[in-house]
Amino acid sequence: MDKKYRIEKDPLGEKLIPEDAYYGVQTQRAIENFPISGLTMHPLMAEATVMIKLAAAKTNVALSGLKAETGEAIIQAAHEVLEGKITGQFVVDVYQAGAGTSHNMNVNEVLANRAIEILGKKRGDYTVVHPNDHVNMGQSTNDVFPTAMRLATLKALEGLYPAGMYLAQALKDKGEEFYRIIKAGRTHLQDAVPMRLGHEFRAYGQAVEDDFERLRHAAKELEYLGIGATAVGAGTNTLPGYREMVIERLSTLTRFDLRPKKDLFEATQNMNVFASIASQLKLSALNVSRIANDLRLLSSGPRTGLAEITLPAVQPGSSIMAGKINPVMAEMMNMVCFQVIGNETTVAMAAQAGQLELNVMMPVIIHNILASIQILQNALSIFTERCVRGITANPETCRRYAEMSTALATLLNSYIGYERAAALAKEAFARNMPIKDLAREKGILTDEEIEKIFSSAPA
Predict the structure, then answer these.
(1) DSSP β-bridge partners for residue 83
(2) 122 near 138, Cβ under 8 Å?
């Protein structure tokens, strides 16, 4: 069956639009102009933009700028999108026109065409409801898109925080479980003074928790919105009271504590709040990657590595070496962290690339922010559940390393001095025997003193 089309036109001329599409001519141009990645804007960005259109329509009706009948049709269309009744219509590639104009018009056209239908007319009849004049009333892409970026990021972070704290708590729980296990500490990958395996895991958990608390603090700045700034920050074409009323309605819709930015000109120029979020995501990824690396090292072996802990076996590790089990969950976590770190570089470059009154790189900024949040959330949850929670300790291996560690000589510093302790460590290593046995053999200390020094566990 031949596909049916309708004709729409814009200032550049006419275009054929699929008859069943709610989007219109400007979206069609974007489809043709930007066949870049096959990736469309994140659903949270579409949702946030529709919420802005909903709040704007309600506000413009309340301020008598928009006819009630037109406004109510737009409001109903927006609710239908938010309820999932209209899907597959936000089709513009993430790599699109600067500032997100194509995305904004995609949403404007979808809501306009559905509103036209609600009013009993045919899609494309913009004399009834116009994407720019009605759906976009009192708005510009330049204030809508960065506002949507803030709302979408706040929403995405709501899912990430629990995943991060789940990992932090799981690591701390292992810290409690492993508290009594004495092991050799290591610095520079060399023997260091003894410690508890529980200390190691408790520190991992605290590091993750601290990172996510810093992220939560940085995200508070996202609550300040520049909606109402319109094109450059001057508020052109907005009605008196519009800005405050839109933010109040958005607060109700999103349940976030939203407030107006003090300087609307700054709001359209500056993307540093997103650079800050990307940076905090990167810092979290750096720490989690470090921890994943440590888990791989501590579990290495099982015969020729450290093997102080054992990671859960979740799949065979080799297509040729039978019986081999690899630390696949930690490896996955590393790869996700590397991607988040790379995404931060993109955000940083895009944030500094704004010129004068506008940063046109906003689409790539929000794409990378939301992508990082999504893969981190998924990876942290799976890593915690299928790796961290199932870690077991090998106490005998830990104790054997601790007792053979030449760094135990450090415990003798205050009794025999650094120089003699260092000589004792050197001889113990050469003779492959525990420090305390050598100290006993040489009669450096009494048996009672030796037991007191070497049996005391770190607090």
Answers:
(1) none
(2) no
Residue from 140, 251, 289, 318 carrying the catalytic annotation: 318
DSSP H or E run through 8: strand 5-10
Which residues are paired to 190 by β-bridges? 187
Mean pLDDT by 10 residues, the chain (459 residues): 88 96 98 97 98 98 98 98 97 96 98 98 97 98 98 98 98 98 95 95 98 97 97 95 98 97 94 98 98 98 95 90 91 98 98 95 98 98 98 96 88 87 88 87 84 74
SS3 190: strand
CB 191 within 8 A of CB 306: no
> SS3 for 138?
coil
- For the record, the structure tokens of 133 come out as 């004049």
Pairwise CA distance, residues 334 & 165, whole Å: 18
Task: Say which residues have a Cβ less than 8 Å from residue 308's Cβ, sequence separation at least 6.
Answer: 183, 197, 298, 299, 393, 394, 397, 398, 401
What CA–CA distance (Å, rounded) separates 166 from 162?
6
Domain residue spans of the chain:
19-137, 147-225+269-394, 405-455
Structure tokens at 29: 């141009």
CB–CB of 275/351 below 8 Å? yes
Identity of residue 82: L
Which CATH architecture group holds 147-225+269-394? Answer: Up-down Bundle (1.20)
Distance CA 27, CA 105 (A): 7
Q: Is 183 left (phi over 0), alpha (psi -120 to 50) or beta?
A: beta
Q: Which of 450, 401, 386, 400 is nearest to 424 (CA)?
A: 450
Given this structure, which CATH class describes domain 405-455? mainly alpha
The tokens of 338 are what?
A: 């590397």
Measured over the CA atoms of residue 274, residue 279, residue 282 and residue 288, the dihedral's sign is negative
Taken in order 143, 146, 150, 155, is the CA torsion positive or negative? positive
pLDDT digits 0-9 by tens, 121-150: 999 999 999 999 999 999 999 999 999 999
| Residue 157 and residue 235 in contact, taking contact as beta carbons nearer than 8 Å | no
Nearest CA among 257, 237, 239 for reference residue 247: 257
Distance CA 58, CA 71 (A): 7
Kindly state which CATH superfamily the domain 19-137 is placed in.
Answer: Fumarase/aspartase (N-terminal domain) (1.10.275.10)
318 is catalytic: yes
CB 144 within 8 A of CB 55: no
Which pLDDT score, from 0 to 100, does residue 458 have?
75
Mind listing the pLDDT tens digit for each residue in 309-331?
999 999 988 888 878 899 999 99
